[in-house]
Structures are given as structure tokens and as C-alpha cells.
Amino acid sequence: MDETLKELGETIVAALGGxxxxxxxxxxxxxxxxxxxxLIKVMTFLRDDPRCQFVSFIDGCAVDWPAREKRFDVVYHLxxxxxxxxxxxxxxxxxxxxxxxxxxxxxxxxxxEREAYDLYGVLFVGHPDMRRILTDYGFEGYPLRKDFxxxxxxxxxxxxxxxxxxxxxxxxxxxxxxxxFLSPWEGTDYALPGDEKAKRSE
Length: 202
Known about the structure:
Blueprint lengths: L1 H15 L3 E7 L2 E6 L4 H10 L7 E9 L7 E9 L4 E9 L5 E2 L9 H11 L3 E2 L28 E6 L4 E6 L25 H4 L4
Parallel strand pairs: 2-5, 6-7
Antiparallel strand pairs: 1-2, 3-4, 4-5, 8-9
């Protein structure tokens, strides 16, 4: 199986030239690293070429690598039911550079790209309906970015006085607890509340 996928990877790289910079086979799946500018060309080739026939769009998502200059990977998974093969296509981008939408090639990518925009802030140019899909109207930030605060920026609640939903800045009602980071297997040097009941009287 791996040899077949390696041959397919070499075929795709040879056919597309610089549009696919590299490929690798891991866990029985072929992964292609594509240039964002050539993404439509790559996806169209994978769908239409008789050696590929990846006609089924399975999934699309983003991955955040905040230490990198191009911090996001946009990842697509495709399936060829006829050849019983899968392929993963990855492109890199940053916060400001849009990626071409693959909706004209795979209409099933529509909501997946909207989700990547909503949760990571990845921009897609040429998408027919680029708006948030999971978070509420007026939501600030992108909650799946690694630098998004765990408490968020605003809280949403029903205000009974004004009879509508209101947005307020997040206020923490108590300070975060201080943890000693000791291993639970070794135990602490002090008695935790309730531990005194477990100790036998001497």
C-alpha cells in the first residue's frame, strides 16, 4: 500500500511541478504540501486526473502553529472511492494572507472553510458566503487559536431588566487557584481537607 501511495505522490509532484512542494506517506495516507497560490490547480488535478479520481471531499480544517511565521496549516482530506485511496492536502498561510477557496472545485468545502474562518481567522478568497458559522454575532476573536484566552473576552447573558441578551466584558469572580504542581502519586507534604478522616488514630 505504501509503495502505491509513494508512486502516486511522485506522479502528482511530477505532473504539477512547483505547485506541490513535497509529499510524504505516513499511517497509510498520502500527504501533499501545496503552494497556496496553486491550491485550485492542485485540487482540480486530484479530482479530474484518471490516476487520482479524488472525487469525494471528506474534511477541511485548520491547525495553529503560533511559533511559525506562517502560523496556520489549512488541511483538506479527499477520498477516491473508485481507487480506495485517501489524500491529505496542506497549505500554509498567515493571519493576513487569504487562501483560495476550494468551493468551486468541491462544493462540500463550504461549511468547513467557514468553520476555519470562524474558529481560527483563516481568510478564504472566492468563498460564496464567508461569515461566521459557530460563534454568535459580534463574537470577538478566534477561539481555537492557541493564544485565545481561556475565559474569552465577553460574556453573554440574559438581562431581565432590559429583556434581551447583553454582552459584558468578562469579570472573574474569584482569583485563579494556586496549584503546587506536585505529583498526585507521591502525595503532598500537607494534609488535604478530608484526609484527616482517612488517617488512623495512633
